[in-house]
Amino acid sequence: MKINIIYNDPTQYSTGRIYDDGVTDIEKIDEPIDMSEYGVLDELKSVQRALIPTGHETKITAVALDVYKLIDELRDDRPDMIFNLCESLDGDPTQEMNIAALFEILKIPYTGSRALTLGLALNKWRVKEILNYYEIPTAPHYVCANSGEFRNNGYSKLKDKFPLIVKPSREDASIGIENKSVVYNDEELKERIEYILDEHKQPALVEQYIDGREINVSVVGNVKKDESDLIVFPISEIDFSDMPDDYQKIVSYNSKWMYKTVEFAGTKAVCPAKNISPELEERIKETAKKVYRIIGASDYARVDFRVKDNVPYVLEMNPNPDIASDADEDTGFTRSGKAYGWSYEELIQRIIGFACERWGV
Known about the structure:
This protein has eleven helices and 15 strands. By secondary structure, the chain is an alpha+beta fold. The chain has three domains: 2-112, no CATH class; 140-208, Dna Ligase, domain 1, CATH 3.30.1490.20; 212-359, D-amino Acid Aminotransferase, Chain A, domain 1. The strands form four sheets. Strands 9, 10, 11, 13, 14 and 15 form a six-stranded antiparallel beta sheet that branches. A four-stranded antiparallel beta sheet has the order 5-8-6-7, with helices on both faces. A three-stranded parallel beta sheet has the order 3-1-4, with helices on both faces. Strand 14 (299-308) and strand 15 form a beta hairpin. The longest helix is centred in the C-terminal third of the chain and has 18 residues, at 278-295. The protein is globular.
């Protein structure tokens, strides 16, 4: 097939320095390095490398602000399939869904979740409403759009549940989450809500902080008849044992992206996770499949949990998780796939296969 790998190109819009220039030795850089812009570049290289031996004809297309250029390129050289790695438009993650919608308008099949799911998953509080409807455990929460009214109706069910955690209500990649996100009293709560409103220009999601194990589950496939059609990879856990005592045991932005920070060094993934009973493992996996189905994921996605007292509380579903692979350091999704027994090349081929079957290619 003709497969077009489409990605958002941070070199065209990023305001910060991108170190992935093939020349800079990041080990010689003294200050913390923001790796968030690297992710999609690493994904691009990994997927491209995995497709080399397959016989597919591949083409790379970078997306920045000029959408008309993308439309012209897809119209003039139409692919059989798009491997969609586009996570934003001009650095705006809320536009991720619109790029996928563009593929749908042009009637070009693509890998991964469809536009509706990408937009829905970004809206954390709406996802929680859906989880509550289906009686899937998730932390009690409310949304606050005015720090002067942080004691609104939702506050009443949380006022006796400190500590709380405060996040942007429509971001991904742990944006807006840091050590100060966990609050212990009204004063800290109000201050953090004001930070989200001022810095991220959106309502704050306030929820009970679940002090438990951080678990994530990678799921692949598509629901045909029921959830048994889905494949669940071995459970992965974030190990915070190396995190200093004065740091919160959370996956913050620094933990995920800021290389050479205390949080980055103190956050390690373990897959398969250890010391999980068969009963709890089954419950976590079944919950992950149910979330995958009701939020509408396609081909592949990851579901994140906090587990406390043997209850898996769903944090969110990521319909476009990082699937980069490197010989020394895989991303969480890829690591889980390998723990299941798939090589990286097989994982990429399977994703394409799921998409082909779903689109009737």
